Amino acid sequence: MITDDKINSSILKILDSIDTMRLGTAISCLRSFVEENRCAISIDDIDNMDRDYNLMLHYWGQGYVDPQNVTIFDALRKKAYECLIKIITAYEIKNEPFFTNNFNASLGYDMAPESVLTRLQNFVADVAMLTLDNNDLATTGEKDVYCKHDQFRQALFCHILTSSLWSEDCAKTFNDILLSPITDYIDAQIIISALTIALICHPDRRKFETLVNVYMHADNETMRQKAFVGWVFALTSPYCLDFYYADIIAKTQENNNVCSELIDLQKQVVLCMEAEKDHSMIQKDIIPDIMKGQNFSFTSSGIKEKEEDPLEDIINPEISDKAMEKMEDSIRKMVDMQKAGSDIYFGGFSQMKRYPFFYKIANWFMPFYVQNPEISNAIDKVGNVSIISSIVDKGPFCDSDKYSFAIALSSIINQIPKEMREMLDGGEVNPMMTDIDKTETVYIRRMVLQDMYRFFRLFPYRARIKSPFDDDTFLFVVNPQFDFCLKEKALHSIFHFMLKHKKKSALERLYKKIPKTDDTRLLMMQAVYQNVYGGNNSEVIACLKLIIDKEPNNLRALKMLGSAYLKANDYANAASCFERIHTLDTENRDNTLLYCMALSKNKDYEKALNLLYMLSVETTDNTNVTRVLAWTLMCMSRYSQAQKEYLRLLEQEDVETGDRLNFGYCQWLQGNIADAAQTFSDYCRMSDADNSSEFIIEEFYKDSSFLYEHGITTRDFSMMADLVALKYGS
Predict the structure, then answer these.
(1) How far is CA 488 from CA 121, 471, 484, 522, 540, in A?
(2) Which long-range contacts (CB under 8 A, 24 or more apart) does 540-547 make?
(3) I need a surface site. Which of 80, 396, 674, 693 has the fewest CB within 10 A?
């Protein structure tokens, strides 16, 4: 991303002109930008565009009807856009150190497409030859082959990242490379990852189409999913315009699974974004229990075996069993979190991304392999390669975490107790989730995303690249290009997911995607959104009434509608709704209580009271029942009975602050002014009121209709507030 605000503003202006089809303005601004900033872009290209556009305008203005006008205009628009992309790329390479350094990192190699192809093919041949030899010389040769090729991979990544728009021939060559069965799988994946980051930085139709082709035609599922994540994330580029890729994206509909994969990808992106929150919860609630059940402790000097206390085993023989049970339960919780898609290892491995290995951008996306020369020293320190292999192969770790683990293990291997070392050597350490099928598409995609998330959260120069995990970019499914998949079922699924994860901004954007419909699921979505976030209670009622017209016994809709009527002070309709619910589900005491609340609000006190007495017998010490019963008795002017209920309520552990306020009303209505003032004063104290007088009088006005009905006047409000202030200050 360009850091110069003035330059960035000019580029965004050009981008907006192209997006809104103001082609003349776009061409003029492009010319000004190139002349003012001495860009490495030929002014001839702009002159040609300007001439062609003016010629088209001239003939059109003369009344000539050219059926090719639309085609010509679209082609010129595309040319203007690609000219801008070239300008952005050239400017960043020249002026932004991140791009400059990556550009320079590839200069020592011949990166012509055919040369790249030859080099990749030669590497496969060299590795094949090494397998034919079995001696020390072959081992030395293997290290040399892998070392030289790793250097080339790093340079190739940097080259692709900073390359300008691909030619048709270049794209064809790389398509051939990626879809060839003889291309090394690590090389292929590195190229795909490089294309992904490149496209997030600088849009390019041919690079984009290359990723789509891999997604559509590759046999290797890991490559398919990396390409899939790549072309989807490309749409989050700050310089991406919808029209540029529209026809290419349309081709993906040939894949019958693309819609379900897009929805699953969107959900997994959100789960990645919650990694820090999950880590905090794990550290606070789970890890302490796991550590209590371990026979090893972690100290500043390394890992040590705990000394057993035989006396403790005699006195409390059940303690160790309980500790083990808690540990197993905590591990199960983590396993369940991971099965649900949570990135449970992010927090633990995030501190391990400071190793020099991660200074190079390509290493964040490097598939794990033990021959990697970048970790050869770490492998040598561990001594037994199988220790690392057994854990990384069994464990559900993304590639960058595997490298973190290998490097971290090498630094502590000599501090590990003998018993644990023997377990590691024997491959007896089984990481969680060893039963997971790592060939499943969902799992592969999850690992790809986790590598991506670590890069965009932890890479030192991440600020130079717009993250697809940012709040303003992560919701890619609302892109108009994906309207083909965001139909009723999919829309309901993703909307429900965002509700569950409380993604308000996402819900606001998804809400706009809901069409006018009589589909009950979509109507419920509208109602839920407006109820929780939108604040349009009238729309909530309207949507729910449509649902109930079609499904009269829909308990969820009836319950929401009753609550909406309560919010609207329409107590008669609220009571009618909850009566219907009570009739349909007589065994549900919570619904009965809601019915009682509605009856009480509708001043049908006797009916409410009969049901409340029944509930109080059936549910002893139910504070909610007591709360509604006390309020109903007070509304019926049965103050002494209400007071008894309030006193009982205030003794409960789950008493609410508002209960004390209502108890104060009960005392006040009985003429116990001093007691009421003291209760109100306590209520102010519990509410941390800065100004007790102003605070309490606001509460009185909130309940003014009830208080007026029971003989309390506005004058009484003022006097009581002053009395409370006196007691509050004492």
Answers:
(1) 48, 24, 11, 7, 19
(2) 540/564, 541/565, 541/568, 546/518, 547/520, 547/523
(3) 674
Tell me if residue 21 falls in helix, strand or coil.
Answer: coil
pLDDT at residue 659 tops 70: yes
Handedness of CA 272, 274, 275, 276 (dihedral sign): positive
Domain for residue 445, yes or no? no
**Is residue 74 one of the residues assigned to a domain?**
yes
Longest CA–CA span in the chain (Å) reads 104
**What is the model's pLDDT at position 327?**
61
Cα angle for residues 38, 90, 475 (degrees, 5° grid): 130
For residue 362, which amino acid is it? Answer: A
Tens of pLDDT, residues 136-147: 545 678 889 999
- Please state which of the ranges 118-122, 559-563, 581-585, 641-645 shows the lowest mean pLDDT: 581-585
Give percent of the chain with pLDDT exceeding 70: 89
Residue 505: domain span:
491-561
299, β-bridge pairs: 302
State which of 75, 95, 115 marks the end of a domain. 95
What distance, in Å, lies between the first and last C-alpha atoms of the chain? 61
pLDDT of residue 309: 54
pLDDT at 302: 44
**Non-local CB neighbours of 157 within 8 Å, separated by 6+ positions:** 190, 193, 194, 361, 362, 365
Give the bridge partners for 303, in sequence order: 298
Instruction: Count up the domains in the chain and report the number.
Output: 6
Asked, for residue 178, whether it belongs to a domain, the answer is yes
Return the pLDDT at 348: 82
What global pTM score does this model have? 0.83
What is the per-residue pLDDT across 360-383, written as a single tens digit (0 to 9) for each? 999 999 999 988 998 888 887 877
Contact between 476 and 482 under an 8 Å Cβ cutoff? The reply is yes
User: In the prediction, which pLDDT does 198 show?
Assistant: 98
Residue 533 belongs to what H/E stretch?
A: none
- Going by DSSP bridges, is the β-strand pair 302-305/296-299 parallel, antiparallel, or unpaired? antiparallel
Q: Are residues 546 and 586 in the same domain?
A: no
Alpha-carbon gap, residue 408 to 348, rounded angstroms: 12
User: pLDDT tens for residues 503-544?
Assistant: 999 999 999 998 888 889 999 999 999 999 988 999 999 999
**CA dist., res. 251 & res. 400, Å (int):** 32
- Structure-block tokens of residue 7: 């330059």
Of 170, 198, 183, the closest CA to residue 113 belongs to: 170
Displacement of CA 40 from its chain's centroid (Å): 39
Residue 446 vs residue 3, higher pLDDT: 446
Residue length of the chain: 730
* Cα 111 from Cα 88, distance rounded (Å): 21
Say if residue 133's pLDDT is above 80.
no
User: For residue 596, what are its two tokens?
Assistant: 């009682």
| Pairwise CA distance, residues 135 & 139, whole Å | 7
667 contacts: CB under 8 Å, gap ≥ 6 = 643, 675, 676, 679
628 and 660: one domain?
A: no
DSSP letter for 296, please. E
C-beta separation of 198 from 464 below 8 A: no
**Backbone angles phi and psi of 519, in degrees to 5:** -65, 125
